[in-house]
Amino acid sequence: MRLTIIGGGGLGHVCAAVASSHGDCEVSLLTGHPQQWGQTIEAVDPDGKVFKGRLKRVSSLESEVIPGADIVLLCLPGYLIEQTLQRILPFLGDQTSVGSIVSSTGFFLFAHRNYPSTVPLFGYQRVPYISRVKEYGHSAFLLGYKKELALAVENHPDSESLRTQLERLFLTPTVLLQSFYEAALTNSNPILHTGRLYTMWHQWDGTPYDHQILFYREWDIPSAQRLIDMDGEFMSLLHQLPVREGVVPSLLDYYESSDAESLTAKIQSIASFQTIVAPMKRIEKGWIPDFGSRYFTEDFPFGLKLIKDLAVEKAVATPNIDTVLEWGIGVSEKQ
To answer: What is the average pLDDT across 105-133?
Structure first.
């Protein structure tokens, strides 16, 4: 199998390491910084298991890594997806499947807008791993696995075959979804991240913090209640779309909780979340929010905005989502 990964972030590193570790998958990488990559890539999971493999080719040129690929996998932030799909289109083979490691930042909508209906598409509902770069271009940490992945596939002659290939490549049980909406609409980052950020900082007065906040370990009840309120509106939207009941579970169901208190305790306790910090930057007097971080440039204008646009189309009221979205877009535009 010939796999081309696009994007050199944490997920790009880990996916490249896991896929190439099989030995029978030829992995290439498209990145803006090919000179910083080595020939081998490795990822280490929390149990010390090492995934290591060789990369066939690393390049910044689509012409060197896209032709001949069986699968092209985008591991990119939302603002890069549409332009990247446009750039790689001339180099795709007739049977090349193009997908995204997560679909909640507009992948399917951008693909529908730019690609003919004959191009096989796939997208994950949630990312397969929690990942962080250790040494750029050489190694990464695989901080956590998902128990199961959900995958939407379109225009493919054998969706089950593609599901099986991806399940084996990324070592996680994978199920097929019935529509792209079931993958594109998620209450993970677009609601979980944005609701938490709003609760932490919508009343911030400019005073620096004495430490970088632990995003999940220092979770609080107001953040959990904000999530529950936003999620209720999100669930109302899903009822107006071709999304099967339970395919996208509520946040309370997903985290096996019943209210804000139990949700807070659950989120605080997740082992793989313990070291993840809030998007902040250090200044002389301490730490301040980083409103130019990817949390703000992706989760608000792409993830949450997609939900809001569909809610307007379907006439679903979203007062809590509106409040959070307006705040997030406002603070990021000031950067």
So the answer is: 94
